[in-house]
Every structure is written in C-alpha cells, then in structure tokens.
Design goal:
It is a single chain. The protein is mostly helical and about 190 residues long. The protein is about 65% helix and about 10% strand. It is built from 4 helices and 2 strands. Strands 1-2 form a two-stranded antiparallel sheet. The longest helix is centred in the first third of the chain and has 56 residues, at about 1-55. It starts with a helix and ends in a 12-residue tail after the last strand.
C-alpha cells in the first residue's frame, strides 16, 4: 500500500512538471509573438519617423508631428526591450524546467494553433460577468468600431447645396444648387 502511495505521489509530481512545462512553453510562445508584433510596429514607426522628419524639414509637416512620431517610436522601442527581457526570462525558465539551464529554447507555432491542439474537447467556460473579460470584450469591440470609422473617414463626403439670393441689378433673383465633393489634392496632412 505504501509503494502505491509513493508511485501515486511520483505520478502527481510528473503531471505537475508537465503542466508547468506546458505553461512555460505557452509563456515563451506568447513572448515571441509579442516581440514579433512589436518589431513589426517599430519598423513601421521607423519608416513614419523618417517620412515625418523629411516632410517637416521641407515645411510640409510641423515639427510637432515629427516629434510626436519620434516619441511614439521611443516608447515602442522601450516596450520592445522589455518584451525581449521577458522572452529571455521565459526561455531560461523553460530550459531550467527541462534540465538544460544553458539552453535557449524557442517555441514553434502560434498561440491559436496551440489552443486548438491542446484543448480541442474542452468547452470554453462561460466567462460572462467576469469584469476583466467583460472589459476586454468592450475594448475589443471599441477598437473594431474605431477601425470601421477610420475606414469610412477615408472617403470624401459629398454635399448637396442650394439656395436663392436676390441681386441689386433689377428685381431679379438667382437660384443656385449643386453637388460638392472635396478632393484632398493639395492637402499635405496639416489639417489633422
């Protein structure tokens, strides 16, 4: 009976190590995806920084715009450095769990694929009423709505006008009406 209890305890320890290893692997994968996303954003902001500085030097944009983009770039690069440290930490913790402390493992795959692969039969728990989840869903919906609005605002809005005005030359009245469509041909982005 005592041998069975020891075997059971060993089995529990083994399962706990497997669970912790899987958790560390997911943390490593998450950190890698975060770095990929931040790196992509930083590359785009570097291009925007060069563009705004060039336009500002030619008077096509304000210095404020150039400094604002530069500040956003510095903040994003700072976030990227923090994410790189978190990636190294997650990699070291996984290597230690696997018994190879000098190894720097990298996770392969995506979080979505890992979620599908590791939990295919588990139904998603009902998270309604959990404040953090509700807030995250509201933020997601607001972000999606903001994207829709931004896409709609790219198109010029036509306007119809009409009117009547009297002239001083005789007793006449003129009517005017038409359609107007703004085209940003000479707009250098200074209005935004």
């Amino acid at each position: 009976l005592e041998t069975a209890a020891v075997r059971g305890g060993t089995c529990v320890v083994r399962v706990e190590i497997q669970r912790e290893t899987a958790q560390q692997w997911l943390e490593l994968l998450s950190a890698q995806e975060r770095i990929a996303t931040l790196s992509e954003g930083a590359a785009a902001l570097r291009e925007a920084d060069v563009l705004t500085r060039t336009r500002a030097s030619h008077g096509a944009q304000t210095e404020y715009d150039a400094e604002r983009v530069a500040a956003e770039l510095r903040a994003l690069e700072s976030d990227l450095r923090v994410a790189e440290v978190q990636l190294q930490d997650a990699s070291r913790r996984l290597a230690i769990l696997l018994g190879r402390p000098r190894w720097a493992p990298r996770a392969v795959g995506t979080l979505e694929a890992a979620a599908r692969r590791h939990a295919p039969d588990i139904a998603e728990p009902d998270m309604t009423g959990v404040p953090a989840v509700d807030f995250a869903r509201r933020v997601e919906r607001a972000t999606e709505a903001g994207e829709v609005v931004a896409k709609r605002e790219r198109w010029p809005v036509p306007s119809i006008y009409g009117g009547v005005y009297g002239t001083t030359d005789g007793d006449s009245a003129s009517m005017t009406f038409g359609l107007s469509l703004p085209l940003p041909v000479f707009d250098r982005g200074q209005a935004s």
